[in-house]
Write a structure and sequence with these properties.
15 strands, globular, alpha+beta, 4 helices
């Protein structure tokens, strides 16, 4: 077990584990049939990336708004669910970061009673607890399971785990620009994947926190924790839950500095220990973390694992396909 204590870092919605880790090779051969996930072609196009409005988080590098062109690619219609990740583990014997180190972060109110005495709150974000034995198939620690969450997004996966899964599936992680372009669903400068209103016609379109965080969740959207990966209506490209539910790793290393010049298929810095994650999670609440907007962004160390970070896969189109 890794005995390093958690240290403060990253955003309050996903604490940093303070791990020191190298980017490990996956050792996984691509699956000839991929992973059975549904996907859609995201057509070539340009869009205004970023946000400079009143809700922008000043230290997150959401702006400046800049014109970006993205080449066509495919993106899975949902985040990777527990069933798909289980098939990956069974096929490859992959050991996740949380399994190797022996612990991960769990949202405090979800920690089972029998584990509370040994739980360690994360400095600065006491609603996150380090739980020994928490991992992708024991989301709240020993004694928990996936029996009723097979179609919920896999969590407790590090960036390293996400890269390994994508490699096995014959896919990759999307770049940050690809992710935001796809999340917008063809809408220019909208706040959410479906428009500018959080609950159009009084309907919830994503899984986030309602009530007083972190003590009382009204569950107006129907869920306290994760929801099935296709629980809400898709956006204009047919993609489910591009915001809310779980954060999704992207391929880009973190930077908060962006070039204003128009760019084609931009990527983040060539190297870095922190990677961009997008979309927010079921724990986001506008009182402290309104990162369930399509332009919102955050970062985590590539070895970080929590109960609200997952992944979604992309693929390149053949060179002759210029859709």
């Amino acid at each position: 077990m890794n005995d390093r204590p958690p240290v403060e870092g990253g955003a309050c919605c996903a604490p940093s584990a303070g791990r020191v880790d190298e980017l490990l090779p996956s050792g996984a051969a691509p699956s000839p049939s991929n992973d059975g996930a549904g996907s859609v072609v995201i057509p070539t196009g340009s869009f205004l990336m970023g946000y400079e409005g009143p809700d922008a988080n000043p230290f997150d590098g959401e702006g400046p708004v800049r014109r970006v062109t993205v080449s066509a690619f495919t993106l899975d219609t949902t985040a990777v669910d527990n069933d798909r990740f289980r098939r990956f583990v069974e096929a490859t014997g992959h050991v996740t970061t949380a399994e190797r180190d022996g612990w991960s972060f769990v949202f405090g109110p979800f920690v089972p009673e029998h584990l509370r005495a040994s739980a360690v709150p994360a400095p600065g974000v006491p609603w996150w607890w380090r739980i020994d034995g928490a991992r992708w198939d024991q989301p709240e620690g020993p004694g928990s399971d996936l029996e009723d969450r097979r179609n919920h997004p896999v969590v407790h996966v590090s960036f390293n785990d996400a890269v390994a899964y994508a490699a096995w599936a014959g896919k990759r992680l999307p770049t940050e620009a690809e992710w935001e372009y796809a999340a917008r669903g063809g809408l220019e400068s909208a706040i959410y994947p479906w428009g500018d209103e959080l609950t159009p016609s009084g309907r919830w379109r994503c899984n986030i926190w309602q009530g007083e965080f972190p003590t009382a969740n009204a569950r107006d959207d129907g869920y306290a924790g994760t929801a099935p990966v296709d629980a809400f209506e898709p956006n204009g490209y047919g993609l489910h839950q591009m915001v809310g539910n779980v954060w999704e790793w992207t391929a880009d290393c973190w930077t908060a500095e962006h070039d204003l010049e128009p760019a084609i298929d931009p990527t983040g810095p060539a190297t870095g220990e922190f990677h961009v994650r997008r979309g927010g999670s079921y724990l986001c609440h506008d009182s402290y973390c309104n990162r369930y907007r399509v332009a919102a962004r955050d970062r985590s160390h590539r070895a970080d694992t929590t109960a609200n970070i997952g992944l979604r896969c992309a693929t390149d189109l053949p060179p002759h396909d210029t859709r």
